[in-house]
From TrEMBL:
Any one GO molecular-function label of the UniProt entry: serine-type endopeptidase activity
Domain Peptidase S9 prolyl oligopeptidase catalytic: 463-676
Family listed: Belongs to the peptidase S9A family.
The protein's name in its UniProt record: prolyl oligopeptidase
Enzyme Commission designation: 3.4.21.26
Species whose genome carries this gene: Corallococcus interemptor
GO cellular component, one term: cytosol
Amino acid sequence: MAYPATRSDAVMDTLHGQQVADPYRWLEDEKAPEVQAWMKAQDGFARAALEKLPGRAALEKRFTELFYVDSVTAPFRRGNRFFYMRTHKDKEKAIVYWKDGESGQEKVLLDPNAMSKDAPVSLGRWVPSWDGKRVAFAVRPNAADEATLHVIDVDTGEWSKVDVIEGAKYANTNWTPDGKGFYYEWLPTDASIPVDARPGYTELKFHKLGEDPKKDVVVHERTGDPTTFLQGDLSRDGKYLFASILRGWSENDVYWKHPADKDWRLLVKGKGAKYTVLAWKDRFYVVTDEGAPRQRIFAVDPRKADRANWKELVPEDPKATLESVSLVGGHLALEYLKDVTTELRITTLEGKPVRTVQLPGVGAASNLTGLEDQDDAYFSYSSFTTPRQVYRTSVKSGKVDLWAKVEVPMDPDAYTTEQVFFTSKDGTKVPMFLVHKKGLKKDGNAPTLLYGYGGFLVSMQPSFRASILPWLDAGGVYAVANLRGGGEYGTAWHEAGRGANKQNVFDDFAGAAEYLAKEKYTQAKKLAIYGGSNGGLLVGAAMTQRPELYGAVVCGVPLLDMVRFHLFGSGRTWVPEYGSAEDAGQFKTLYAYSPYHHVKQDVRYPALLMMSSDHDDRVDPMHARKFVAAVQNAKGNSAPTLLRIEANAGHGGADQVAKAIESSVDMYAFLFQALDVARPDAGVAAESR
């Protein structure tokens, strides 16, 4: 393909005695006119190529039917008021609604569709006060992580002109019981602070409504360490304020105090363990993997909070991983993963088992949401072939009722899901979900899309994905591998795929590909891989390490230069997950798998669609630019390599349905073409009817 020209510079670093070439370092400077021109040319080239692909009209029609749907989320109850979100068939973005009582009149509270006429903005996290009279919410320009906090009066719908707080990238508002103020995490927006150092400047502050935010009191100073996160929390009764200092996703320290106190008290110093604290009626419930890779729960009396006085309430289950805990209806609600499917259990506040909540089937469910002293609670459920359903349950009686469901134009009985286990390179058994139409013929010819993530304790659960339906209807298989690095089997599973063990994740993924071919689901030329963010690193490493296993790659908002990732975006906060090239030993590990540094001149790589965003302030798009430049200029590579850049979009992409349809059409049209799949027109059109 006649790609836009990309110059290569003779840039060479010597790191820990190793010479490291970086010929496309000039592409790191996004503001440079030359880089802007290059991005425009690459995006234009990619979109022109994608626009010519067959089957687009049918895909667009089907995705329009699947994505523009009416739906509702589980509600939050605050006082007698209920708050929730709805999507509408004729709206681009979800809207926040409220009503007095469950049978009250529904009213619009926050409509991001009408928030700005000048520039695209997104609605970030929103939190109602405990009395339901006000809501603090974040507005994010271009769907980026950077945000500004606002406060809206629920009764009048008026935004406060005083309570406007910039620097809310990491902010989570914790309201006081009287609704007169809230605690939040604040990050300075001073341009003189290097972007990689900013996380270490996070402070925990208190804002009193109606006062100038610039005078907000700092209640916990910044750590000064950009590899840490600072997070605050306040108990519902306002008695206990917590500050957690997180070092990555595996370890944290927890401090607490009464809000009126001056000094913080150390609850626990995390040494290779993480702790989550819930407080209710002068008792702390501590959820931890300390001495329990699948997590357990302790009760702590704050008057005698020394570690020796902790009382174990719920011991570790050796066969299920405790994902989350909530306090609802005077009970503990426990969300477990058992071989990557959800199980919801209820216990007393003393940890005595009460029941397992009845779920509609084998799939993914959220934990119960509700209030500590209210019997009604809600949870959502879905599976690969069941759209999201919201259920209401009585904690006391165990009765479960369907509260709301999403209607999607599909026949769930046409598909089937199976879970298989394959053996990775070192002998580890790894689970994988396979979704396809019933009656699939295992002759090695089914186009297959293999998805993975493998990091940060994130579990890939079997939840609904409307975007895969046209793929399934064309005879395709959708596979999700539960790689090490995730949280499916607890802390030990995560540790086996992070830091010095990161190569295990890539070996697991290759093992999944080999299994799919061995079991005659597909073959290399019919197998595509897909991943985003840390999953983008995954597929980048997969295609550079084992290019012969795959026919196509879709890589989204990725990390790919693992030698310099810590210098950009939120990179230093990921050092506990990956390591840093500033450390000699960790550099050796990172350089060994860094995809950008392993693009070879004499290799034919799979067809590559790189999907980037122009306002991604989490993972810097320089990764995508440099990698694409390297692959396009590899002389032995003849497969298409396209860089698609989403405008006015952050790490999670744009938040309009129309944009999601556009990107999905581009992605699947690319995959159909790259894997030589029969045009989807007939099957998609039939399904549409």
